[in-house]
Design a protein that fits this description.
seven-stranded antiparallel sheet, binds alpha-D-glucose-1-phosphate-6-vanadate, TATA-Binding Protein, PGM, alpha/beta, phosphoglucomutase (alpha-D-glucose-1,6-bisphosphate-dependent), binds cobalt (II) ion, isomerase, phosphoprotein, 17 helices
Length: about 550
């Protein structure tokens, strides 16, 4: 087996976004494209000779092919060992756990997460560092810089490794270990939650439905919910990972998980419903006849986490992304723990978790997680909910009503305008940024503007600054409208508008969200002229 040095030329478009490099499959299929990016990652790292690299993905189209490339390039670049999930499968949280427990140098996670899969859809590569979390910005910036000057990559001339047989093979000096992708992760879950109490609740007639959306969580959910917790066969829907996710869009929201939603709103709905996304790091929670917004879910999980054995000692702090509602802030205040507000994307939570400053983190985009790994974790969130329900002996709707009666309610919605021409989206944001200074003190449909800014974050652990993380318009009554462009799309631009209004415990807690937010939705339109810039008179998706 010989190491080949292959001449290549830079691609101009390999800048990692919110969560790694995401492109259409056909972009990744260009000669040298994946290899260039992987070599740019390796060239940006120091000291991995002889160390372990974890590789796995969500099973989408191109997963196996890119894994074979990564393995041969890892061998040619001097890694000592590659750990890969059987069949090339590793959910994002399971990959994070495997990196941590194996003492790996880092890992490559192959996924485009909630984006669709298949030959005409999306693929992605993300590098995670030794703490198990997404590489911080200084690393992704270095990877991007390297991708613009790269002129060769190193790859071993070797046959494909059998990804389906558990065990160790050797590729030159490097060991390749194919591991069970599920067992260690399921054990970790069992160590955090009261499985006996959840199992007894299910044996007592509590019913649940979990939609894996034909994506990576199928094997994990089947092992955990059906085998270890005793839920009947069929509890896990769409439980086989498919390369094209069965033509579905594996984004667990009210549009793409509509089958589950309809089931949860039916007269004979199960007690609890949940779904996860392509790579298993997101969660959608729907109680019987009761949808829970992700921001509320974060708040409820934080307020009740001490009921689960893994969090009995309480929380050190709570972190949320800036666009996530302030519901968790009220919980932090009551618990007397700090609340951190970070930019969008899980990579900003890693330092806080490593420093022991936060225990639970969450994003409005259906991501919740804790210091057990360094990624958000869909099944973890579902299990924490089940543990809380078992401990409180209350259903989801009652828990939500009790929570709002204590803390008040943050009415919340996100409006996405998808597939906008990029120059139109950039122009909208530029116009908005241009008028920030003039907004405070003015009034519009949403009320009087208190302040308006472009969110910047200074990491409290290392002082690094991230600017231009989203435009915020804050109203005197505490309501907010936030605008930012997505960093995970692969076609045109997506404008995200986040709308929030707080009503205290004495106020009307039972409004329809659309009614509660109507004046703010109108204000967003007035201030940003969304229809004018985009030509769209309504959002593509409301979550
Ligand atoms: C979106 C979400 C963000 C999330 C990211 C990755 O990013 O808004 O909260 O962390 O996806 O999630 P953006 O830039 O498109 O708004 V996943 O499940 O794709 O790893
Ligand atoms: Co995801």
């Amino acid at each position: 087996m010989t190491i080949q040095t292959v001449a290549t030329r830079p691609f101009p478009d390999q800048k990692p976004g919110t969560s790694g490099l995401r492109k259409k499959v056909r972009v990744f299929q260009q000669p040298h494209y994946a290899e260039n990016f992987v070599q740019s990652v390796f060239d940006s790292l120091d000291g991995f000779a002889g160390q372990t690299l974890v590789v796995g993905g969500d099973g989408r189209y191109l997963n196996r092919e890119v894994i074979q490339i990564v393995i041969r390039m890892a061998a040619a670049n001097g890694f000592g060992r590659v750990l890969v999930g059987q069949g090339g499968i590793l959910s994002t949280p399971a990959a994070s756990h495997l990196i941590r427990r194996s003492g790996a140098f880092g890992g490559l996670i192959l996924s485009a997460s909630h984006n669709p899969g298949g030959p005409d859809e999306d693929f992605g590569i993300k590098y995670n560092i030794g703490n198990g979390g997404p590489a911080p910005e200084k690393v992704t910036d270095a990877i991007h810089a390297r991708s613009l000057s790269i002129d060769s990559y190193r790859i071993l001339d070797a046959a494909d490794v059998d990804l389906d047989a558990i065990g160790v093979t050797h590729l030159g000096d490097m060991a390749v270990e194919v591991v069970d992708p599920v067992a260690a992760y399921a054990d970790l879950m069992e160590s955090l939650f009261d499985f006996a109490a959840i199992r007894a609740m299910i044996a007592g007639g509590f019913t649940l439905a979990f939609d894996s959306m034909s994506a990576v969580t199928g094997p994990y959910a089947t092992e955990i919910f059906e085998r270890r917790l005793g839920a009947p066969a069929g509890t896990v829907m769409n439980g086989t990972p498919l390369p094209d996710f069965g033509h579905h869009h594996p984004d667990p929201n009210l549009v793409h998980a509509k089958v589950l939603y309809d089931r949860m709103m039916a007269a004979d709905a199960p007690d609890f419903g949940a779904a996860s996304d392509g790579d298993g790091d997101r969660n959608l929670i729907i109680g019987r006849h009761c949808y829970v917004t992700p921001s509320d879910s974060l708040a409820v999980l934080a307020a009740n986490a001490h009921l689960a054995p893994g969090y009995a000692a309480g929380l050190k702090g709570i972190a949320r992304s800036m666009p996530t509602s302030g519901a968790a802030d009220r919980v932090a205040e009551k618990l007397g723990v700090p609340l951190y507000e970070t930019p969008t994307g899980w990579k900003f939570f890693g330092n806080l978790l490593d420093a022991g400053m936060a225990t639970i983190c969450g994003e409005e985009s259906a991501g919740t997680g804790s210091d057990h790994v360094r990624e958000k974790d869909g099944i973890w969130a579902v299990l924490l909910w089940l543990n809380i329900i078992a401990a409180r002996k209350q259903g989801v709707a009652d828990i939500m009503a009790g929570h709002w009666a204590t803390y008040g309610r943050n009415y919340y919605a996100r409006h996405d305008y998808e597939a906008i021409a990029k120059d139109r989206a950039d122009a909208l944001m530029a116009a908005l940024r241009g008028k920030l200074g003039t907004l405070p003190g003015t009034a519009n449909s949403g009320g009087t503007v208190q302040s308006a800014d472009d969110f910047a974050y200074t990491d409290p652990t290392d002082g690094s600054v991230s600017s231009h993380q989203g435009v915020r318009i804050l109203f005197v009554d505490g309501s907010r409208v936030v605008f930012r462009l997505s960093g995970t799309g692969t076609e045109g631009a997506t404008l995200r508008v986040y709308i929030e209004r707080y009503v205290g415990p004495e106020g009307d807690l039972a409004m329809a969200t659309g009614d509660a937010l109507a004046p703010l939705i109108a204000a967003a339109q007035e201030v940003a002229d969304i229809a004018g810039f985009t030509g769209m008179d309504r959002p593509s998706v409301i979550t």
